[in-house]
Amino acid sequence: MELQTIDASISPNTDPRRGGGGISVAIDGPAGAGKSTLAKRVADALGYLYIDTGAMYRAATWVALEQKIDIANHDLVTRLVANADIQLAAPDEKSQGKVRVFVNGSDVSFIVRSRIITKFVSPISAIGGVRTILADKQKKIGANGSVVMDGRDIGTVVLPHAEVKVFLTASPEVRAKRRLKDMQQMGQTADLQTIIEDIKTRDHIDSTREIAPLKQAEDAVLIDTDNHSIDQVVETVLELCRQKLAARREQ
Fold first, then answer.
1. Would you state the torsion angle of the CA atoms of residues 87, 92, 93, 94, taken in this order, to the nearest 10 degrees?
2. Strand 24-28 relative to strand 164-169: parallel, antiparallel, unpaired?
3. Cα 193 from Cα 226, distance rounded (Å)
4. Residue 66: predicted pLDDT
5. 24 φ, ψ to 5°?
6. 158 part of a folded domain
7. Per the domain annotation, does 11 fall within a domain?
């Protein structure tokens, strides 16, 4: 899709806060494609609620690893996640723009984005019981619209009737460089080639799992971000939202 130049403002006649309720925006794609950054900026521009579903799965992974259990025991992992109080909060100065994550009242925002969590989040996310628990929470949050949600099965499972669906992608090499930059900003170190291999492995697990695999919804717009700035991508998605909002008013 041809990308638009940046203009993050929403004109008065397309602002959902000025006329008739908001739409649902689903952003899917592989690890490191920039979904969270895109979703947050789109939500901010629209005045919508932003839900980082990846952070929820990272929290579930932390719950399992913190208990030092065998993650192959799917029933036990599912019970632990079912009993965990997972909450998301708006970013603050300490979270470096990332959504804050709390489990049972403890702030785990930093640890859930560590490499050890990243290594195990795909296997945990593939557990059917875990997906059911978290997807149900996500569906309830998104039921009333005016929400931007990103993940891997938002447009296909969680919000199948979302008015705007985007599948964001980029090459493993580009995604790895972005991931390395994020890790360095958090004071973590890693080898670029190792991150590339980790991303490829995670892509395979996410796209081949039996339950809610990573795939592009039939009605989603594909955006490859390899050669485009985040500003261009944000404006492209906002234009899709404007078109849907305008069409709704004409109905």
1. -10
2. parallel
3. 18
4. 94
5. -105, 135
6. yes
7. no
Instruction: Work out whether strand 49-52 and strand 147-151 pair parallel, antiparallel, or are unpaired.
Output: parallel
Strands 100-103 and 106-107: antiparallel
Q: What are 18-47's pLDDT values in tens digits?
A: 333 689 999 999 988 999 899 999 999 999
Nearest to 132 by CA among 82, 205, 86: 82
In a domain, 166, yes or no: yes
Non-local CB neighbours of 221 within 8 Å, separated by 6+ positions:
1, 164, 165, 166, 167, 240
Cα dihedral sign, 102-57-74-138: positive
Given a contact cutoff of 8 angstroms between Cβ atoms, the answer to whether 250 and 20 are in contact is no
Measured between alpha carbons, how far is 74 from 173 in angstroms, rounded to an integer? 32
Our CA angle for 66, 69, 73, nearest 5°, is 135
Which domain CATH number covers 110?
3.40.50.300
* More confident position, 32 or 168: 168
Residues near 229 by beta carbon (within 8 Å), at least 6 away in sequence = 6
Residue 213 falls inside a structural domain: yes
The count of structural domains within the chain is 1
Distance set, CA 7 to CA 11, 19, 59, 111 (Å): 10, 21, 34, 35
With beta carbons less than 8 A apart as the criterion, state whether 175 and 35 touch. Answer: no
The encoded tokens of residue 139 equal 């569906």
Q: Which of 192, 174, 173, 172 is nearest to 184 (CA)?
A: 192
Give the domain range for residue 142: 16-237
pTM over 0.85: no
